[in-house]
From TrEMBL:
Record remark: domains: Consists of three domains, a large central CORE domain and two small peripheral domains, NMPbind and LID, which undergo movements during catalysis. The LID domain closes over the site of phosphoryl transfer upon ATP binding. Assembling and dissambling the active center during each catalytic cycle provides an effective means to prevent ATP hydrolysis. Some bacteria have evolved a zinc-coordinating structure that stabilizes the LID domain.
Family: Belongs to the adenylate kinase family.
Keywords attached to this entry: ATP-binding, Cytoplasm, Kinase, Metal-binding, Nucleotide biosynthesis, Nucleotide-binding, Transferase, Zinc
Matches recorded under PANTHER family: NUCLEOTIDE KINASE
GO molecular function, one term: AMP kinase activity
HAMAP family associated with the record: Adenylate_kinase_Adk
Gene that specifies this protein: adk
Subcellular locations according to the entry: Cytoplasm
Protein name per its UniProtKB record: Adenylate kinase
Residues annotated for Zn(2+) binding in this entry: 130, 133, 149, 152
Amino acid sequence: MRIVLVGPPGAGKGTQAQFIASHLSIPKISTGDIFRANVSGGTELGRQAKQYMDRGDLVPDEVTIAMVRDRLGEDDARDGFLLDGFPRNVPQAETLKKILAEWDTRLDIVLELVVDEDEVVRRLSGRRTCDKCGRIWHVDFDDKQDDICDDCGGHLFQRDDDKEEVVMHRLEVYRHDTAPLVQFYADEDILVGIDATGPVEEVTKRALTALRPLER
């Protein structure tokens, strides 16, 4: 099965992508993970991407598309994949469609995780990341009274892209660049909206229910 997951930042795409991909035994392909790995590794791509990511802007299409095309060409993605974080705009979606057509295939479904903007701001601006183990804690959802990681004793900090002003900017970018994907894929007749509020397990159940008719 070939799936794209869309939704605003903070909708839980990364979490749901992991569960769905595992359930279907297909690779989860996340541009966000690839970008962060390059940033932490100090690669040239990471240096290029970081200046955009820190502002909440999108990494240029040419960088993103080349990376995704290579990844989709790997053996483990031959029989299916789940894309998380790509495409982010209509031109990328059109390019993805052309790439898949070259390989005589197409997307099966696009899942849109639907959540309101106030909830997005609360989810993201409350996140704190451990500087040692990388675990993410939340000031509202976790019982934290200090800025120390309970797992390893590391210091908790707020990532630049989780600061409220950056989150608001990311939502503005999403509305302008990414939200039109909803109409694009609705016109392709492969879009299904999923309520992304509530417990993670409930959101996963809704997603898997939507996918069930497509499972072989």
